[in-house]
Give the backbone structure.
Amino acid sequence: MSSNKASQTSAYYKEPGPKLDKESPFESMMERFRFAADILKLDEGMFQYLARPVKQVIVSIPVVMDNGKIEVFEGYRVIHDNVLGPSKGGIRFAPDVNLDEVKALASWMTWKCAVVNVPFGGAKGGVRCDPKKLSQSELERLTRRYTANLLEVFGPDRDIPAPDMNTNEQVMAWIMDTYSMNQQRTETAVVTGKPIILGGSQGRREATGRGVVTCTLAALSKIGMMPNKSSVVVQGFGNVGSVSAELMYEQGAKVIAVSDISGGYLNKEGLDIPAMIRYMKENNNSLEGYSEADKISNEELLELECDVLIPAAKEDQISRHNADKIKAKIIAEGANGPVTANADSILEQKGIMVIPDILANAGGVTVSYFEWVQDRQGYFWTEERVNRRLNRMMRSAFDNLYKVSGEYSITLRQAAYVYAIDKVAATLKLRGIYA
Ligand code: GLU
């Protein structure tokens, strides 16, 4: 790629136009995609190809509930592309899952895999349901029927699901079993994020948070800051947020605030993160009632004075409504899409370094790739080996994008899109269009 300062005037670049209150995640993704396509002077046909998912499946999932009544849920699987390899991406269970969101998330998986040089395309799935209202056996029936409806889509060489919001190792075990029963052989590589005993990988559960921290440490060093002199705020205390908070705490950082759905917890002297994790585990996975901190709202938490802000909860948390009030020096996007496209330029003007989701949280899919490799080889690695390789891949992806951002005078997010789109487009060009 040659050096080329960004211009925003091509056919692809649409002025954002009147701002909507709630930004569509797919439109947020497209806005960034257009910007990068413009820099790359991407051929119009290539643009059209990469803008659309190759497959979008909507399934109806009837479940016999514990009370004997049938309830029908809606499920989705979107394959954005399979240019670099089989498509890869998690499955989320949430009441507000919809096709627009799943399409955006599937595209992000394509760019994410390209950014960390993992040989997968991008996909995402979801079921619109409230998992908190389902019993364990209802959840199992829902998962198995969703998998059964997608037997022709999934496969270790075709499309490989993984955990995402509200899905866990147990859900992955049911997917693996349902697929395997239908194939009449055990096929562990059809899904990642499985329990270790079923062919899961050491370090997979912590991988996303670990990758967030690798990138955060790299970013801190770029701005000349020591981790043990930095203050950190983490939004979300699930798998990604709690591990990120814990690893930053282990680095000697002062984690001054964290939050979960029960709200935010602030202690300017620094929170005792291991104690909070213990508390959460003993308290039904909630921080509700934790007393060694001041209670604040999730909104207040985002606007705290700090060096590093890690939004690790959900989409659309930093938008044009509050971007102006963010005081962090670095934002490391643990969640997918926590900053809307409309907020990007506001943060850029404020000089905040944003480590984009498709880099910051790519540790999860990187270790998913390791898991798939291990399953296919039937040879399992130590946790130390997994973490070492993860660290190496994340660090080299960060350094690479940092270089691209310097070459084009663009943000890290724009650099991530430029690098990823260039890579996928170059691969597609070599493969050609099958007629
Ligand atoms: N759901 C995770 C993500 O958004 C992991 C995907 C995977 O491991 O395939 O990156």
Remarks:
- Residues 88-90, 162, 164, 192, 336, 361, 364-365, 368 surround glutamic acid (CB under 6 Å).
- The longest strand covers residues 70-81.
